[in-house]
Specification:
about 230 residues, Nucleoside Triphosphate Pyrophosphohydrolase, 2 domains, five-stranded mixed sheet
Length: about 230
C-alpha cells in the first residue's frame, strides 16, 4: 500500500478517522486482526472532500512522512475508529499506529525532598535522558500506579530513603520536547526529610552522587524543564 507523504491524524475523544487506499472512509479496524495493510490516515484533500474542517494541534515526522495531528470540527464521530483498536490491527498502516502510540502521554512522577535547611535533594544521573546532570528523584509511573506512590518508590530506589509526602497537591506540567511529538506529563510532589546523609544509598549505575542545593542553585542546575517549573513554586 503506497502511503502519502503527508497525512492528517484527526482525533476526537478517542475516535480517529481512517480511510482506505482510495481515500474513502471512515474505515473500522478489528483488534488482533492479521492480514494486508488496507487503512491509513487521510490526506488534507481527502478530508476537505468529506466537508470536514479541523484545527491543527501539532506536527511531527515519522521516517520522512509528515503527520499533522488535528481536532476535527464535527460532533463526536461515533462511526470512526476507536484509537485503541487501531494498535493491534495489521490492516492499519504502521504510520497511523506509530502516530497513535506517540500521542499517548508519558507519565512521570517527581518529588522535591527538603531538609531542615530547606535545601533540595538532587542526584546526578548516569543513564536516561539527562546523563551527567542533576535532577530531582523521579521516574516513569508504572501501569496502574498513582503518581504519589510512584515518586515515593523512585526515591527509595534511587536514594535509598523512605519519604512521606506533604498533603499539598502536586505541580502538574506538560510538554512536548522533540519533533517526535511525544508528550510528557509530570506530577511533582514535596516532602520533608530529616535524616542523616549516611542513610542515603545511591542506586548503582543510575545515580553517581547526590547533593543538597538551595532553591536558586537547584533551578540553576536543572536541565529538566519540569524540575525548574516545580522548584519555582517552593
Amino acid at each position: 500500500m503506497e502511503h502519502p507523504k503527508s497525512v492528517l491524524y484527526l482525533e476526537h475523544d478517542g475516535k480517529v478517522l481512517l480511510v482506505n487506499s482510495d481515500g474513502n472512509g471512515p474505515q473500522i479496524p478489528v483488534m488482533n486482526n492479521t492480514g494486508d495493510t488496507e487503512y491509513r490516515f487521510p490526506t488534507e484533500d481527502e478530508v476537505k472532500n468529506m466537508g470536514i474542517e479541523w484545527d491543527v494541534k501539532n506536527k511531527f515526522d515519522i521516517i520522512g512522512f509528515q503527520v499533522t495531528k488535528a481536532h476535527p470540527n464535527v460532533e463526536w464521530p461515533k462511526h470512526w475508529a476507536w484509537k485503541d483498536e487501531c494498535i493491534s490491527d495489521d490492516s492499519v498502516h504502521p504510520i497511523a499506529r506509530e502516530s497513535i502510540y506517540r500521542s499517548i502521554h508519558r507519565l512521570v512522577s517527581k518529588v522535591m525532598v527538603l531538609n531542615s535547611n530547606n535545601q533540595v535533594l538532587m542526584g546526578k544521573i548516569e543513564r536516561g535522558h539527562f546523563v551527567g546532570h542533576w535532577t530531582l528523584p523521579c521516574g516513569y509511573m508504572d501501569h496502574d500506579e498513582h503518581p504519589a506512590v510512584a515518586c515515593v518508590r523512585e526515591t527509595l530506589e534511587e536514594m535509598g530513603i523512605d519519604i512521606e509526602l506533604d498533603t499539598e497537591a502536586p505541580i502538574i506540567t506538560q510538554r512536548i520536547f522533540t519533533n517526535e511529538g511525544i508528550s510528557f506529563v509530570s506530577f511533582t510532589y514535596k516532602s520533608k526529610w530529616i535524616g542523616d546523609n549516611s542513610e542515603i544509598k545511591l542506586k548503582e549505575n543510575e545515580i553517581s552522587e547526590f547533593a543538597w542545593f538551595t532553591k536558586e542553585e537547584a533551578i540553576f542546575r536543572s536541565v529538566s524543564g519540569f524540575d525548574a517549573a516545580a522548584l519555582k513554586h517552593l
